[in-house]
């Protein structure tokens, strides 16, 4: 594992204005293609085929250090709560978590009193996701919370580090893009009350569980839709339902079934925690969240992660643990 002993924001990453504009122009064509798909530029079959051709499984880092696993769950909790406060869509929170995981799969953060670094990273990821997906984005100061209050310039520099590390590839296929399709196919003539919004909440609840988040977006969306329709499907019933939907498309039936059972496990664990009077972490609007850290997953990422060492003695000593400042 490569260890970086430099500052978290080296001068070389502060791209000049011309380079930033060039990068954005290069990405503009990619974004336009996604917009054509999502804005109704094709019929349902073309829409789904395009999404299936482009979707990839999310990269979720595996942590040997329990500190970083807990810090990731805390970052997700911040993202979901702050996203709700700021009135963002659930998809924005989900995309923020994918940015967080993609970054952490490439760089690691030392656990020596660097909880502030994870909070700064989560702020930057949420801000970037909002700029990609929301119509109106509040000032960066609105992303701060009482325990860590960073200056806007500091958050901007972390945004630039994230952009650089992710190669400026910020548009991605998410399960939310499949929800309407699966809702129409699976709910058919018996749609549950607020069915689509409930499916979206179940999808967001999966962000803390690596076993689910590592699956393809179409798999997560299909399993969440089936789970909202009925939480007690047998395997035969699931395969029948999926087979009916997959008549014109090649969906991953086995992984959809497995994902459905993972949602069942999460609900069972949540119910057990509630019945024992233990307060479960509020990681989704419906508190539908697995408690175990994501390091328990057997899925191993092949990406080589570099160690990110935050040097508090230099230019960021003034942002460390700014508690209570306005």
UniProtKB/TrEMBL annotation:
The organism's place on the tree of life at top rank: Eukaryota
Domain Cyclin-like: 77-164
UniProt KW keywords: Cell cycle, Cell division, Cyclin
Gene that specifies this protein: KAI2c1
Family membership: Belongs to the cyclin family.
GO biological process terms on file: cell division
Protein name: Esterase KAI2c1
Pfam families referenced in this protein's UniProt entry, alphabetically: Cyclin_N (PF00134)
